[in-house]
Fold this sequence. Notes:
The chain has 655 residues and is of the alpha/beta class. The chain is 41% helix and 22% strand. A hairpin with a 4-residue loop joins strand 17 and strand 18. It starts with a helix and ends with a helix.
Amino acid sequence: MTANLATTSGVTTIPALLARNVAEYGAAPAYREKEFGIWQSWTWAETAKEIEALALGFMTLGVNEGDHIAIIGRNRPYLYWSMVAAQMCGAVPVPLYQDAVADEIAYVLDHCGARFVIAQDQEQVDKVVDVQGQLSGLDHTVYLDPRGLRKYDHEKLTRFQTLQENGLAARAEHEPELQARMARHDYDTTCVMLYTSGTTGRPKGVVLSNRNVIETSKNSSEFDDLRPGDEILAYLPMAWVGDFIFSIGQAYWTGFCVNCPESPDTMHSDLREIGPTYYFAPPRVFENQLTNVMIRMEDAGKFKQWLFHHFMAHAKKVGPDLLDGKDVGFGDKLKYKLGELMVYGPLKNTLGFSRVRVGYTAGEAIGPEIFDFYRSLGINLKQLYGQTEACVFITQQPDGEVRSDTVGVASPGVELKIAENGEVFYRSPGVFVEYFKNAESTADTKDAEGWVATGDAGFIEEGSGHLRIIDRAKDVGKMSDGALFAPKYVENKLKFFPNILETVVFGNARDKCAAFINIDLTAVGNWAERNNIAYSSYQELAGHPQVLATIQGHVEEVNASVAEDPMLAGCQIHRFLVLHKQLDADDGELTRTLKVRRRIIEEKYADLIAALYDGSSSVSTETEVTYEDGRKGSIKATLELRDAKVFAPVAVAAE
């Protein structure tokens, strides 16, 4: 019944949802932003006025239906408004990653043929100016923050507020056409174009319709009972599909408030101030928060350490059961309440999770130990499985059925099937329209019946209907002896340790597994300071004998754990090295969403991989790096290669 309400009432576009929210929640907060230490707030009615003024401003620039408007910057209400204003004009918003370098920006602007760019500040304007000569179709850039831009040539450069003022001044001229355009838009009109992270190649432009976005937002919001009174913190890249669905799709469907932090540096303090009720973070964020907790505990006094470990052991035992409403003994309940008073409550408050009613993680598999840690605190953290091509949601975990080893059941409106080779396929109202200018890839990914290949290998459990993802289908392989090779399974176990930030496991078609490891500079640096160990660089600390010994202990602990799974026991790590540099998106080793680009790493560090497998005890290497200002350089290092203890599979040992 609710599904039909959207279409029969004419609410088939994001601008139409905005008008509905003004009518129903006009005085309620729609956006907040912290600026200069003070929270600014806009109601839905005020938001609508800001967006309309901007849409009229776009009309004065000559924005046509079908034009692409690129948006680049950090999470700010003004930039979210730009997306909706573009939709009002019949244009297609194309958000870009704010940390993308000029070449990456040039590729997207050229590929989508963007005529206009909305840039946050001088840094982003400079990137556009640097590549403007490569772009034939770019007409105009609009900037938000005027600092540093006063002496720039303003022939094709306009301030955001000035554009709004120009739009309001020309209302009589342009409003009839603006209203006519909005009346022509329907469920199948393009809503947004989002570029994939480009894990295996050039990013692809994913075209999503109003139907895709609104149906998915409606279904996922109802699944978790999201409400107009909910609060979220919008801090993830606006170019990422998750942020678009949470901060535009679900926000406009439910009418909840979107809060934007002052800066990445203040994100955690802003999180504590807002206390969101609905929260999403990729595993890396939860891993970093846990690392910081553990670092603080290492610096605490003996009694506080005992108190923390004593009550966390109890939380691990009964916390998830209490969260799921299962029976727990009176004594355990009482002890948990005491722990809530002394440990869990203060810790959740420090993390900013005191009010979280629904929390999700996705993007990469999260380590089960990390996942269980947060749920043991009473935080309703769940996993979802999704893709840009699905408008995020493919599976979700229902309350009471939350497990660390699955990604849940099919989201409402989603159908699942497993191909003969184990690859997961899905079909839903959220399935993307096409890859922009790439009919061949569209046909390879989506068949004539609407089934989409995920590229992931997994299976659906009988009885529960839960989907279990093994790994990326292209990454799952066989060891030379026929044993299953699934690198993510081992990598996630390693990343549970606060000292380990990233890892890449190799072993497909080989007789044993080996690994690259990145240390976490914050965690290991803290350890070095407490032990009066001097170091001058990441490279020096990564090669310290005590650091290598500690990492070896972690690897061997993971090997013991992996040995307990007969199917994956062959994935134990026989040899490893700690890399002399952190894997970096600017060096092409990670995507902008921090996913490992495995093939590029294998090519770039072929000499190190060869050394791991030829028995060398050390290897000298030189690696090209990209500095923050875009300059290229190189670093040289001699790395120690270490053997790790491996264990007999439990099933074999029992025989």
